Amino acid sequence: MTFSFGSFISLTGDEVFHSTRLSFAFVNLKPVVPGHVLVCPRRVVKRYAELSFKEITDLFKTVQEVGIVIEREFKATSLTFCIQDGPDSGQTVDHVHVHIIPRKKGDYENSDEVYTELAKHDKDGRPSRSLEEMAKEASWLSTFFRLEGR
Amino acid sequence: MTFSFGSFISLTGDEVFHSTRLSFAFVNLKPVVPGHVLVCPRRVVKRYAELSFKEITDLFKTVQEVGIVIEREFKATSLTFCIQDGPDSGQTVDHVHVHIIPRKKGDYENSDEVYTELAKHDKDGRPSRSLEEMAKEASWLSTFFRLEGR
User: Fold this and answer.
1) Run means of pLDDT, 10 residues per run, chain A, 150 residues
2) 20 to 30 A Cα–Cα from B56, which one of A63, B30, B44, B84?
3) Residue A64 is labelled as binding a ligand
4) May I ask the CATH class of domain A3-142?
C-alpha cells in the first residue's frame, strides 16, 4: 500500500508506521531530533482550510495517539506540534502535515531553537537518513499501533 | 461570562471573540504579529494527551474557522499553527492552547523567525497591550462568528 505525500512523493510501509481511515503517520527523512514524525490527511490537500470535518477529527485524534507513543518511546517529557500552513509560513510540501517533535529538558540551549532547526531541516544540505534506517524505525513504531487502514 | 485560561487567568468578552460548546478563542496580550490569537478547550487541561475525542474535534474545527477569518481579515496569505505541549516545549500556561499566527510574504527576514518571537513573546519585558485595545479587537473579530456558547 502506498500513501501520497504531496503530488510527487509516494510513501510505503518503509516510512509509514500508522494509518487510519483518513490519516497516516510516517517517519522523517531529516528529523530535527530523534522521534520527529509527521501526520497527514490521506487526501492530498494543501491548506488546513480545505479539510473536511471528518478529516480534521481523524487527523487530530491520530496526532494525539502518535504523540503519546512518541513521547513515551523516545523518553521525552513534552511535545511540539506545528503546522506550516501556506507558502509564507515555511510550508515546503503542498500537503497539510502536522510535525510532532518529542522534547526534553535541555534538548536545545533555548527551547525554541527547535523551530530554527525545523525551518532548516528540509532545506539544508545535511545528508538524508538511509531508507534502511527509516524502515527500521517505522517497523518498530508500527508495533505500537493497530494498523486499521492497511 | 468568563473563561479560565490556566488556573490563574480569567478572560471575558474583552478578550474572547468566539466560543463553542467546548472551545473558545481570544486575542493576545502580546501578539508576535497583528492577528496572533489563541484557541483553547474550555476545560483547563494541561496536556494534549488529556483531551477527550469530543474536545479535540471541537478544538480543531474551531481552529479552522478562526484561522480562515484571521487570514482573511489580517490580509495574510498563510498561517502558522503551533502547540507548545508540556514544560520542555516552552509552554508557559498550564492549559492547552493553539497559537494561530497570520503570515505574509516577508513578514520576517527568515520565515521561521516567527518562532523565536513566539518564544519570547510572553517572557520579555515588552509592554502588554492595553485592555481597551484588546477589547476593541475582540469586539471586531466577534462580528465574524456566531457566538453559540454565550
Assistant:
1) 93 95 96 96 98 98 98 97 95 96 88 75 74 95 73
2) B30
3) no
4) alpha beta
The whole-number pLDDT of residue B115 equals 78
Q: What share of chain A has pLDDT > 70, as a percent?
A: 92
Q: Do A115 and B115 touch (CB under 8 A)?
A: yes
Q: Does B82 sit within 8 Å of A85, measured CB to CB? A: no
Distances (CA, A) of B148 to A133, B4, B20, B113, B135: 49, 18, 6, 36, 19
Respond yes or no: is residue A97 known to be catalytic: yes
ipTM of the complex: 0.92
| Helix orientation angle between A53-73 and B53-73, rounded to the nearest 10 degrees | 110
Helix (H, G, I), strand (E, B) or coil at B19: strand
Q: What is the pLDDT of residues B76-120, one digit of tens each?
A: 999 999 999 999 999 999 999 999 999 999 888 777 777 777 777
Residues B74-86, buried b or exposed e (16+ Cβ, 10 A)? Answer: bebebbbbbbbbb
Query: What is the DSSP track for A2-23?
Result: -EEETTTEEE-TTTEEEE-SSE
Q: CA–CA separation, A77 vs A72, rounded Å? A: 8
The minimal CB distance from B64 to the residues A56, A79, A84 is found for A56
pTM of the shown model: 0.93
Which residue, chain included where needed, has cell 480534521? Answer: A56
> How close A7 gets to chain B, by Cα (Å)?
20
Give the integer Cα–Cα distance in Å for B114 and A44.
26
**Residue A99 annotated in ligand binding:** yes
Give the one of B64, B71, B119 whose C-beta lies nearest to A110's C-beta.
B119
What residues of B are in contact with residue A107 (Cβ under 8 Å)? 88
